[in-house]
Amino acid sequence: MQTIIDSHAHCGIQDNFFPQSFEDYLHQIQGSDISGVAVFSPVEEIYDRYDPFFQDNENWKKKRRQSNEYVLSLKGREIQVFPYFFIWNDFAVDQISSDFLGIKWHRHADEPEYNYDSEQCAQAIEFIRNRNMPVVLEEELSNTIRFIKELAVGARVIIPHLGALNGGYRSVKNSGLWELENVYTDTSLASRETIADYITNYGCGRIMFGSDFPFGHPKRELEKLRGMELSKEDFQSIAGQNIQDLLQEVRTR
Ligand SMILES: [Zn+2]
User: Fold this and answer.
1) Could you tell me the pTM of the whole model?
2) How far is the CA of 159 from the centre of ligand 1 (A)?
3) What values do phi and psi take at 93, rounded to 5?
4) How far is the CA of 49 from the centre of ligand 1 (A)?
5) What is the 15 CA–ligand 1 centroid distance (Å)?
6) Ligand 1 centre from 8 Cα, in Å?
7) Per-residue b/e over 12-32, b at no fewer than 16 CB within 10 Å?
8) Please, are residues 171 and 146 in contact by the beta-carbon 8 Å criterion?
9) Where are the domains of the chain?
10) 212 C-alpha to ligand 1 centroid (Å)
11) What is the distance between the alpha carbons of residues 244 and 156, in angstroms, rounded to a whole number?
12) Per residue in 169-228, pLDDT tens?
């Protein structure tokens, strides 16, 4: 039997701009074969993305904590949930309990920046590397390159959307990042053409099915992949095996 795992979904109950609770997710995947999902918080629950001069405060720290706790609370639900910790500028590694299996690291060019030069950042990266947790890294291109090639050498990084929001698929390709053994990607919101180009050049070992729920529809994203006439083995790698292998190597203590 095929195992289908969605490796990219946002769920939360604080931000209601989209219906994006776990129940909403379950509703959307009804009738599909999706049996597992990697879940992290919605960006809106982590920092004020609309204010480039955003200063962190107690209120946001509380929001973040509650949001990450919600994700953690989804373990043991109707389908398998792989909780990821959404890390921000306070680098609160003390909150990353061993039940978290991955890290979400997110910023767009016009949003407040991570303190890449801080000691806490270096310590957080060290923590992540020791646990061997995959990092879903959405950042502008220069920071993506810096993160992978300088700050977090050897860490396993998933550049989501085939790089669409990390400077674009081609730019990431030109930077040589897709070639690296520790760099992975997910198919969420990417076109079939881009996915096909990636597979031709880099194979099926480091690309994973993802939906980017609530921005993408899990069933539609899965249909996209099914319509690509991949071999059975390749489909299985992308649809579930790769993310399972990746998470199996996380050191939980
Ligand atoms: Zn996303």
Assistant:
1) 0.97
2) 11
3) -65, -20
4) 14
5) 14
6) 6
7) beebeeeebbbeebeebbeee
8) no
9) 4-248
10) 5
11) 14
12) 999 999 999 999 999 999 999 999 999 999 999 999 999 999 999 999 999 999 999 999
Q: Which residues pair with 81 in a beta bridge?
A: 37
CATH of 4-248 among 3.90.1150.10, 3.20.20.140, 3.90.25.10, 3.40.50.450: 3.20.20.140
The closest of 107, 100, 15, 95 to 61, measured between CA atoms, is 95
User: Residue 122 — left, alpha, or beta (φ > 0 → left; ψ -120 to 50 → alpha)?
Assistant: alpha
Cβ neighbours for 176, distance < 8 A, ≥ 6 positions apart? none
Under 8 Å between Cβ of 134 and 103: yes
182: CA distance to ligand 1 center in Å? 20
Strand pairing partners for 84? 102
Write down the H helix ranges in the chain. 22-28, 58-72, 119-131, 141-146, 169-174, 192-202, 218-226, 232-236, 242-248
* C-alpha of residue 214 to centroid of ligand 1, in Å: 8
The residues with which 132 forms a beta bridge, in sequence order, are none
Structure tokens, 106: 């997110």
DSSP code of 147?
Answer: I
The tens digit of pLDDT for each residue in 101-144 reads 999 999 999 999 999 999 999 999 999 999 999 999 999 999 99
Summarize pLDDT for 13-49 with one digit per residue, the tens: 998 888 999 999 999 999 999 999 999 999 999 999 9
How far is ligand 1, taken at its centre, from the CA of residue 189, in Å? Answer: 10
Ligand 1 centroid to residue 56 C-alpha, Å: 22
